[in-house]
Amino acid sequence: MITASRTEQMLVNAPATVTLIDSRTIENSPATNYADLLRAVPGLNVTQTSARDINITSRSATGTLATSQLALVDGRSIYLDFFGFVAWDFLPIDPQEIKQIEVIRGPASAVWGANALTGVVNIITKTPRESPGSTFILGGGLFGRDAMDVEKGSGALFSVSASHAAAVNDRWAYKVATGYYQQDAMARPSGPIPDGAGQMYPDFPNSGTRQPKFDARLDYDHPDGRRKVVMQGGFAGTEGMIHSGIGPFDIDRGTYLAYGKVNYTHGATRLNTFVNRLDGSATNLLAVGLDGLPIPFVFKTTTFDVEAGHVATWRNRHVFSLGGNFRYNGFDLSLAPLGDSRTEGGAYGQDEIFLSPMWRWLIGGRVDAFSVLDGPVFSPRTTLLFKPDPAHTVRVSYNRAYRAPSLVNNFLDTTILSQLDLGALNPALAGRTYVFPVAAVGNQNLTEESLDAYEIGYSGVIANRATVSAAFYVNDSKNSIFFTQDGSYRAANPPPGWPLPPAALELIYLSGRFGPGNGLPASYTYLNFGKVRQKGFELGVDTDVSKGLTAFANYSFQPTPEPTGFDISELNLPPRHRVNLGANYTGGRVIGNLAMNYVGEAYWQDVSSYQGTTEAYTLVNGTLGYRWNDSFTTSLKVINLFDQEIQQHIFGDVMRRQVVLELRMRVGTKP
Q: In the Cβ-directed half-sphere of 316, how many Cα atoms lie within 13 Å?
């Protein structure tokens, strides 16, 4: 069962393209982070740029700050509104505590609200009654860090987690879980950037990551069987690298996201509320301010959210879903001092109409209002489903979604000192570097990004053992928000202390070194760009081969995006081809997992003035484990089995082979 439309339904009946990852696959996976866990989903573009930095986007190119994918944990949003992205290391739970992950591919603002522009990753954890007893997991391993003819030796990683759950009686149940993950820095690329117009990789100290976590949950089930209260709270800490449009930041130790939430359900009615508290700081490793010191970034945010919803049926032909939410964000950001808060709220309604045994029609929409936008935003949705057989569904759908500007998009305000190698202009000036100021400012006149999506899809179950899916989509986005150069130093306005004749600035402008129509950068800002059309199709099959053995295969094709009103050089370009193959085995004593991910070459331009192409790569991962008895399991887990040099973003770290030995101990009743 999945919840793609806010109501529980079978996967084959979902009005959207959804991939389900179950707990058995998660437990057997060799993944030590959510990038490796999710990269096998068709249509999902995943990049890991450092030991902690992960970005995920469906049906579009991702980047160093992926802003269009909403992520939820038991209904609580972990989307960070100050930058407009998801920090996956702020999930307070270990992957082994997850019951299932639903990946909704395609826009979903009509029911999930703001920022579900290209899709939703909905994580549902195990309840205390679904995971009774105690679990302890210990893992440790090594990974390679030799890359691009630079030998650095091996890095280490270590993880430990423990949980305990129990049902006190038929009313009360509880669960506590804690964990810690640590990894050394990965390999940094060096030398010239591929297809980077002669640019060299800058040298800066890379960082690993440390991630402590804690989570506690208390469930109350009313004797009438219809009412339930879930109270939950915890925190997740992090440190390490995050890449942005103005270069890499090193997040300081002690940065954390804490939360508390209460969910109340009474039959088909629910009321959820949560608070997220983010407190952290970071230092830019390349950009320096006017004082000549690295730019610091202090960020504190507090989010309050309350949501209500109800599902009702009428005459056995209509399933109505109604709901809405209100959200308040308080901000204290050193890079955006003029923005201190914003509010948002919205309401949705939809009707799933059972026209006949073979035909269903879903129609609905949502209206949202933001304090940073001039007017309300409407997100309509409609899907026509044809079911020639209960196990097969063909659907035709239209969706509109949007993303509101983040606080940094609106209120960024800083100036950085940039450098120009004068030797690149005149060999006689070799070794001389000119330092000049560049302003980075927000734009309070931004409008929301929007996306209109058209899709034809099929889902079916064959012989009660194979689930087959296919989808063709056309996504038309409008007013995409990009961080881009909007001012240049020219002969008429040279930068302070310019050492060459002003005419040299015109030569720089004509050379196109900083992109078409750009000279030596004077300022960067966020702008709404025109339109982009993204097309593609996805094919997939998941099957039960035999008892305990499952297998999957999928293929995704995304041709080059088609921009209108601006140059394609402003866009990241996703890989055209992605292929995923794999198998998962759980037997009496032996467990195993093997997966192959092929990703085609991609183009990146979203980190300052560094652009280039990453090569296609094939990633092979595997797990082999043995259950010694009902309590003890040991596993050998390998990422990048053939030890390829894999760079997932042009500015990101280089992945080499990772080998982890894991011990799992469980005491208590089997769930």
A: 2
